[in-house]
Amino acid sequence: MSTLVDELDALLPQTQCGQCGFDGCRPYAQAMADGRADTNRCPPGGPPTIAALSQRLNRPARPLDPDCGVHQPFRVALIDEEHCIGCTLCIQACPVDAILGANQSMHTVIEADCTGCELCVAPCPVDCISMVPAGRDWTADDAQAARQRYRSRTTRLLARHTESAGPAARTLANKPALATAPSDHDKQDRIAQALARARARRS
Predict the structure, then answer these.
(1) Which residues contact 92 (CB under 8 A, 6 or more apart)?
(2) I need a surface site. Which of 25, 86, 131, 185 has the fewest CB within 10 A?
(3) pLDDT tens-digit profile of 85-99?
(4) What is the enclosing helix (H) or strand (E) of 161?
């Protein structure tokens, strides 16, 4: 049986952008169900979503809260692959696994999976990610697919966290570090060199 939170969550676009001030769509749905949040805090959903949420909760539909952002046509992230340094920060930030790449390797966005949340933009140290018009609208099917990818990623990360806290992991953590393991200074030096190369290419 679906709950009020389930129903409200189903009305949200599932971009998981956090612009509402909550850590994803479902926490925002929970806050609305608890009476802790208004229905006008979802920029990606805009007026149609506000209207649907307000109707379900029997509340007046107020204009989008400007503190949360502005409603605009659907956009997706685009990585300037020539300047990507392979730091993986955007991959870590993406809530729906829509970015492919590996450490020190070029990254690319899977456009069909991108929710346009923009969470990958700020962490990029070389500013090589921009948001571009998607040329289409965000649909209910998109939202459902994004919800599944978000849940899969959350489950995977939780399992990894649980595994890292297990006895075997703790035993490994107590072993002395290998002599070949790079130090924090070495890591920082490599990052600095990569940034310098990227800046040189852009200038």
Answers:
(1) 123
(2) 185
(3) 999 999 999 999 999
(4) helix 140-164
